[in-house]
Amino acid sequence: MKRNILIRLSVLIGILTLAYNASGARSVDEQVKMLAERYRQVEDQLARSICYTSKDESGGATTVRQEWYNGAEDLIKATVERNDASGRELTEYIPHDLGNDFGWRGLFLLTRKETPLPDGGTQVEESRKYFGETEEGNDQLIRQLRKSGRFKPGEPTDTVHVPNVVVDLSKQNKGEGGAEEFGLGEPHELSPALRKVGPPQFFDPFANVQGDSDKYRVIHGSVSPDGRFAIAMGLPPEQSNWDALYGDSYFYESGIDDYDVPNYIVDLAQRKILGETSCHYFGTKRRYNHRQCILRWSPDSLKFVQLWDDKWASTECVVGKINPGPKFAGAVDLDKAIEKKTYAFVGKRADAGLSLDIKKVGNDGVIDLDASENIRFGDRRGDIEFGVNEHLRLIDGPKGPRLEILKMRRLPND
To answer: What is the model's pTM?
Structure first.
């Protein structure tokens, strides 16, 4: 059945391209391809993920729900399968927040219905819905594909060769999205109640792996695309008790700027600390009001940018690299590497500090980012003083990784 529902990238690529909107947001095609790639990444890590299964039998129907969580206990996939005399219905989805991208949110939702035919064959109806960003905001239905196939008795019901039909979304009602029942837009983290269920309904491949787990707490949303690595916070200096910190989120209620909290790169499979990232984000939640921890990973999960962002400027930003082993090659202070050259490029003195927007991190170590300065006071409060697009490259130096600036381009202030 897994093969029946996998997204075929070749099919997606053949769909007509839609233009970028006026704000320069990602095109529909680009968002769909991102969701397809995220689906593939999730499928690859299901076998080594936490899995919870519940089963309900009532009214002649059997309903099975499955949820998969990564090593940071973030939900990565959920399915609901219902079987009764009328046939079989399957719904599966991948939540929007798994891309760990605060500039864009997407969700994929698949439904499949198998109905037995009088001749012993099977009628299969499938729908693939892609939710993303439009001019109306996030969490919008941006594309829907449908498949319909009739299969003979004993014939495999794989729909890979059944052509997709693109649904005209302009003719659909706004309320026909279909993702709301899964809690679109809500955080999805493993609850303590599920862990108490125990086997066989609850399977945890990390249960017997201790490693360094008493020394860190993973920051939600920081996990690499392959589910192997994550960023975690450690205990602050002179603190040895996690329970002494404020609440379950490990957020420091007062004196937050006085803490020098270490952040680590962690191998989730072994629960092992590989090294310090040189960033000092203070909590396990991705966002506390204006303060947030943003991670951008390369597709191969071996390079990352960790950005501690705030309302007016970025507090800290580091670039890290993982070598085979895995071994942590080290981290570079990105903000320090570009600040002087950025201000020199625009011909201005450093004032409020740079606000960074990390666009992309490539397998080749090339980083695409926008650096800007926001005006904090006066009539222009909230406006952008200047913006620069920069391409950097992370390379190996004699003392570890280092950054070189490839090019800079001035951005319009609107």
So the answer is: 0.83
